[in-house]
Amino acid sequence: MRALPFLILxxxxxxxxxxxxxxxxxxxxLLENGTIQVDSTHLNFVIEGSGTxxxxxxxxxxxxxxFSKNLRExxxxxxxxxHWFAKGYTLVKSxxxxxxxxxxxxxxxxxxxQMEKPLLIGKSINGTIAMGYxx
Length: 135
Description:
Helix content is about 30%, strand content about 25%. The chain is α/β, with parallel strands linked by helices.
């Protein structure tokens, strides 16, 4: 039942339609991207929008396509890869790759992107990780 509020928020955010109204030019200038190095892995990130900061964990390629332009007028999305979406990702022993390891990666991303208390969003297994995050 603890996952219900997150699921409702995710479906509300993902089902909003694109606005036909043109966004001001200054909002278009907010697009940023780069990488965060975690051990030998480079996690890509893309930043879009303005407003309340939202850390979207999973894929920096897929997830930006799933949120409407209208939402970007109210939220600043930080789309960050997790290891299994990173280029050059290689399998590791499962005992070395735990929820704590993934949460450590999220902490590293928050630090590198200078985020204090963003909304944390994920879908599928990434939603499970977001629900397991307690910081």
